[in-house]
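I'm stuck. Please check this protein.
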Amino acid sequence: MLRKIRIILAAVFFIAITVLFLDPAGVVYKWLGWTAKAQFLPAILSLNLVVIILTVIVTLVLGRVYCSVICPLGVFQDIVSNISGRRKGKKNRFTSSKEIKWLRYSVWVLFYVAVIFGVQAFVALIEPYSAFGRIVTSIKHPMMPTVIIAAVTLIVIAILAWKNGRTWCNTICPVGTLLSFISRCAMFRPVIDTEKCKNCKVCEKRCKASCIDIAAHNVDYSRCVACFDCIDNCKFDALHYRFAWGKGSKAEAPAKAAEGEGSDAGRRAFMTGTALAIGAAALKAQEVPKRDGGFAEILPKVSHDRTELLTPFGSKSVKDFYNRCTACQLCVSQCPNNVLKPSTDLMHFMQPYMTYTDGYCRPECTICSQVCPAGAIEPITKEEKTSFHIGVATVERDLCIVQRDGVSCGNCARHCPTGAILMVPQHADDPDSLLIPAVDEAKCIGCGACENLCPSRPLSAIHVNGLPVHIQD
């Protein structure tokens, strides 16, 4: 019964959060956005005390049910492992293995050092929710090089899950390691009844976490993810999920210890998976050039080198945004105007940045601020959005078609939502000369409508430079 309840709850969370990332209409976040905010590390970065306290309490009482129910990457591994187990002769394929402590705790220490010192590329690479988010987002919006990173992550984790179940969770995952410190003291745990146990090892062979040593009647609760597979498959009713606080990991009357130690299958699977993943590559499809009615090629927009990066409305500053962002790319998948894209900059690798080559940040859109689970983009209303200044537009006259080609335009001024662009005579001493844009910096909010809609190619004649600290009127 416990296993069935776990599977139902895990399916609900997994489907909900996958739909949230894949939502083509950008409306599901209103009902399913809470599934992203329930993720543990984003909750820590956003100081979401409700989620943090609940997760700690649930883990202290029930064990690592977070890893089996709420974490989408954990559920994904269970799906892969279950499919692998359905192969002929592979149903009981796991073996007890020792914890790879040196690797597990080394990664954990490096991860939290990276969080403290703002090395977000490493954080984003192995944080479970963010890794899953990139995989799903790459299906919806495949962009280089994120799609390669997502593909390699998928291959490595899938291989490990296919061969050895939860090796990633109990070796690499920093959230799993953090929760393992708490789950060691969980109040309710799977406990082996030595009087009923027949040493058949079915529970050990079905344990995807490889944490059951039936010869010693021992369960490593730091690695147990509370999936209840062992309890469901015991034919002798020798395993029970019951209150066992403070009783350690061994059964009360342990059987004779086994002569040999469990095989270190987790280490081999990790090394094999990593080696295979390094050889994975993806080739970018050739883009078919767009052409106008006269069959002239329309050059694509190229982004300017900005003096300061642009970060979304609702982020306090560039520094605060990148310190909090976990690169889950939920905002990227939800952005209806393709303004947010994953960065290739090593300092902010895979974290979103704003570019106006494919669209601009519409004043009425606040989706990214509503879905961000890490607090990198704080919730704002449509009314509040136009009071923020995230950047200032700059005109490069040499690129403007008014000056370059001698034609009238004014497209940027017509579409500026705040009236920050004025059309002034090209030559100050000739009021009848063609009009050229000038920017009222006090009114400009940095939305990028002017840059995106400028007809100049490949570089726009007007572009937005970000403000390091955002200003609110």
Observations:
- The chain has 21 helices and twelve strands.
- Residues 290-472 form a domain with the Alpha-Beta Plaits fold (CATH 3.30.70.20).
- The two ends are 57 Å apart (CA to CA).
- The longest strand covers residues 462-472.
